[in-house]
Design the sequence.
C-alpha cells in the first residue's frame, strides 16, 4: 500500500485551511449582517413607537384644545335653541356628529371673532386718517368681531358642499353595488353595510352615511325613519329619490332591484348632462379672458409693424 507523499499532504492541509478560512469569513459576515439587520429592525421599531407617541401627544393636545373651545361655546349662550338645532343639522351634513360639535363651533366663532377684534385693536390706530378717531376704531373692532363670527359658518358651508359633491359623484356606483347585493339575496341592512364597506376607500363620506343608516336599522329603528334621517343628513335630491324608492319598495312589496337599476341609470345620465352643461358654459366664460388678454396681443402683433412704419414716415 502506497503512502501519500509530503506534497499531497501539504496541498490537502492548505485546502482544509482555505476552506476553514472561507467558512469563518462567511459566518462572520452572516453574523455581522444579522446584527446590522437586528439593529435596523430595532431602530425601525423605536421610530414607529416614537411616531405613535407623537401622534398620541398631538391627538391629546387637539382634544384638550377642542374641549376648551367647546367649553367656551357652552358657557357663552349667543345662540338660541332653534339656531343651535339648525347648526347641528349643518354639522351633521358636514360629517360632524359628536354631541359637543355645536358648542365647539360656537366657541370657534367666538375665538375667531375675538382674534380678529384683537388684530383690529392692534392695527386700527395705524390706519391713516381714520385710526385717529376713537369711534372709527370701535367700529372697526365691531366689524372685525362680526366677520370673525361669520367666517366659520362659511367654512362649514364649504365643507358641506364639498362633501355633497363627493357623495353625488359616487352615488351611481353605490346603486350598482346595491343592485348586486340585492340580486345575491341579501337583506337591505346587509346590503347597505356591504356597500358601505366596499365604498370606504373610494368615497368615505358616502360610506360613513351608509354605515350610520345600517347601524340605525340594526338597533331596531324603523327603516323609513332611518332612511329619511340619512336623506336629511346628506341633503341631496338624488339621495331623497333613493330613499323614497326604498321605502315604497318595502311598503308595496315591489322588486327593489329594477328600481335601483333605473335610479343608477338616471344618476349617470344626470352626471353626463351636468358635464355637458359645464362644457357648453365654457365658451361664454372664455370670452372675457380672451378679450382682455389674447385680443390685445393679437392686435399688437398684427398692427405693430404698420404703426412703426407710419411713425417712421411722419417723422
Sequence:
Amino acid at each position: 500500500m502506497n503512502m501519500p507523499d509530503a506534497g499531497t499532504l501539504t496541498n490537502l492541509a492548505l485546502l482544509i485551511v482555505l476552506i476553514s478560512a472561507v467558512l469563518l469569513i462567511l459566518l462572520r459576515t452572516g453574523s455581522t449582517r444579522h446584527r446590522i439587520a437586528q439593529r435596523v429592525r430595532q431602530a425601525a421599531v423605536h421610530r414607529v413607537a416614537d411616531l405613535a407617541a407623537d401622534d398620541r401627544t398631538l391627538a391629546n393636545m387637539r382634544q384638550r384644545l377642542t374641549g376648551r373651545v367647546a367649553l367656551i361655546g357652552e358657557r357663552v349662550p349667543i345662540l338660541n335653541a332653534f339656531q343651535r338645532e339648525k347648526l347641528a343639522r349643518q354639522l351633521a351634513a358636514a360629517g360632524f356628529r359628536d354631541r359637543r360639535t355645536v358648542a365647539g363651533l360656537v366657541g370657534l366663532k367666538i375665538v375667531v371673532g375675538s382674534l380678529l377684534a384683537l388684530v383690529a385693536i392692534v392695527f386700527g390706530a395705524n390706519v391713516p386718517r381714520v385710526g385717529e378717531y376713537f369711534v372709527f376704531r370701535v367700529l372697526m373692532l365691531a366689524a372685525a368681531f362680526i366677520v370673525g363670527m361669520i367666517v366659520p359658518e362659511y367654512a362649514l358651508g364649504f365643507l358641506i358642499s364639498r362633501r355633497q359633491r363627493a357623495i353625488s359623484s359616487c352615488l351611481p356606483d353605490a346603486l350598482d353595488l346595491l343592485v348586486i347585493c340585492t340580486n345575491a339575496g341579501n337583506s337591505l341592512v346587509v346590503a347597505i353595510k356591504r356597500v358601505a364597506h366596499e365604498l370606504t376607500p373610494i368615497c368615505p363620506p358616502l360610506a360613513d352615511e351608509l354605515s350610520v343608516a345600517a347601524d340605525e336599522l340594526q338597533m331596531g329603528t324603523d327603516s323609513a325613519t332611518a332612511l329619511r334621517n340619512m336623506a336629511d343628513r346628506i341633503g341631496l335630491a338624488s339621495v331623497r329619490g333613493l330613499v323614497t324608492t326604498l321605502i315604497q319598495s318595502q311598503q308595496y312589496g315591489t322588486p327593489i332591484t329594477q328600481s335601483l337599476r333605473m335610479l343608477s341609470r338616471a344618476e349617470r345620465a344626470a352626471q353626463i348632462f351636468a358635464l355637458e352643461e359645464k362644457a357648453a358654459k365654457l365658451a361664454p366664460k372664455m370670452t372675457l379672458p380672451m378679450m382682455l388678454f389674447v385680443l390685445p396681443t393679437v392686435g399688437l402683433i398684427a398692427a405693430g409693424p404698420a404703426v412703426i412704419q407710419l411713425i417712421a414716415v411722419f417723422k
